[in-house]
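Need C-alpha cells for this chain, all 299 residues.
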Amino acid sequence: MAAITPLFVSVQWLQEQIATSNANIKVVDGTWHLPMWKRDAEAEYESGHIEGAVRFNLDEISDKSAPLPRTIPSAQEFGEKVGKLGVSNSNHVVIYDNNANLGMFSAARVWYMFRLFGHKEVSILDGGFPKWQAEGGKIVSGSQPDVNPVEFKTTYCVEMFLSFEQTLDAYTRKTAKILDARPPGRYNGKDPEPNPKIPSGHIIGTENLVWRAFFNPDTKSLKTREEIEKVFSNAGVNFDQSYIASCGGGITACWIALAAFICGKNIPVFTGSWLEWVKRGPDDSKVLGVKGEDLKETL
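Here are the C-alpha cells for all 299 residues:
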C-alpha cells in the first residue's frame, strides 16, 4: 500500500529530504502578500529561499485574460506552467510561504490549486519560511534555479470549485451556505478591503468563519482535527449540509477548504469571492461597508 502523503511536513523532515538529495521532492515557494503589507514576494525569494525551491507566483499562474486578479487558470495552462517549474505528476510537492504572523497564508491557495487539478502528492511546510529560518534550515539567495520543463498532466476535480454563477444559484435556491474567511472588521464593513476601490461588507445570510480560527496562536500551527471540528461546530457548521468557502479574493477561503479536508469533508471554494460578488451580485444580497479610497479623502 502506498504511503499517505501528509498534509503538513516539519522543518526537520524537509531538511532530511534535502540533505539526502531526494529528487522526488519539489519545494515550491508560494508566497503572496496583500498589497497593504508593502512586501515584494519576488524580491524576498531572491534575497533568501529554501535550497532548490521554485517560485509559484499566484499572480502569474492564473488566467491573465480574466477581469479579476488571480483567477484560476484552465487545466491546460496550469499544467503547462507547473511543468515549466520542473514539477511532474510523480513529484511530492512541498509548499511554503513567508507570512510574518503565522508563517502560512497563501500556502493553502497553492495547495488548493494542486488538489483542484488532481495532484494529491502535496504538502505544506508547517510554520512556513519563518519556522524554517528559526530552526536553522539552509537558505540560499539568487534567482530561481534552472529546471528542465517536464510534463504535468491535470485531472480537474470539479467538486472543489464554484464559479460566480454556480454560487449565485446555490445562494438563490438556498442549497448551500457561504462561509466567509475574512477578518470581522472587513466582513462587518467597518474596516476597508485591501483594494481601496472595493467597499467592505458581506453577502447577506453568510457566516463569518475567520481563517485564523483554525490556527493555534501559540504554536502557529494548524489545530488538531478535533479542535478544527469544534471551530466548525462553534460557527454553526453541520456537515450534513452543503457549504461554500469565500473570502476577499480567493486566498484565505482555501484554509476553510483545507480544514474541511482534514475533517474528511469537501467545501468548494468560490474563488471570485467578495471581490466578484460585490461587482456582480444582486444589490439586495449585499451589506456594503467602508471603501478605502473614501477613508483617505477624509484624512
